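Thread title: Can someone regenerate the structure for this chain?

I was given the following input by a collaborator and told the matching structure tokens would be attached. They weren't. Posting the sequence so someone can regenerate them.
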Amino acid sequence: MTAQAGKKHLPRWLRIAATTTILVIAAVYIGHDLVGRGEETLQALRALRPAPLVLALLVVSAGVVITALSWREPLSAMSGPITSGDAIRLFAAGQLGKYVPGVMWSVVLQAQLAARSGITSTQIVATFGVYALISIATGAGIGLPATAALADDRPVWVTGGMIGLAVVGLLVLPWVLRLVLHRASRLRLLRDRLAPVGIKPLRRSMLLCTVSWLVSGLHVWVLAIALGASPSAALLPCVAGFALATVAGTLVFVVPDGLGVREGVLVAVLSGCLPLPAAVVVATASRVLLICSDVVMFLYGSWSARRARVDPAPIPR
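Best answer:
Regenerated them for you:
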């Protein structure tokens, strides 16, 4: 595929204005959420010691890094090889965009940095669409067992059937995505803008995404144990519950990053292994740590791009 290095980009002042606007709106929503639940936040911080908070922050940050590597797979398949460092930098650049109402603002932030690497907006948008499906599908598959905590009277065979259906769906999804991308790449509008995507990068993306869900969910487990939950009894509700709650928040895309929605679902799942007040503390602490991780990742992406003069090594075609 030919790099579109000579393609004209938006004026610098317009790119700066768009980025600033997105960040201001994100800051308003984050600030409103934290102030609105200020008493709960203080309660969470008082109830938890620094050690589990720091450990949980490191765990959830590791999950974000693995997510970035999963996101890299479809992007590199469509645009050309991209290093792990550049993938993490690009992914991190869009972390605060998800706190703006809508679904495309992370893409806007990522596209501005990606353009300087020869990656086009079309490739970034296509990656966003493919990865959104992978993330939601794997998250729902992992989160499905958590629904047992929401309906104690559900027959075992119903839960087993839903898990089996999820497994089959995850096995079939890479082939469906490959077919859709193959058809899309043959459209006249996209023929010269998207490279064909094989089944292997889609499988790798799904595997890494599954790992990222499992790792990210462990931060909830760390918090729950710190508040007295049984490590064995809390593992499944915490990991699966986090995935289920995050997917639920993602689907309600008019709410920035599922603010409030994710916490509500997570509290409902965790109430099976923790007293309700403790479950609220864990959900609130989880939100604060996720915001901290997103801010740190965004700052890393911005700083590393500036340190490298914003221009990573051109991606070979």
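The CA atoms of residues 149 and 255 lie 25 Å apart.
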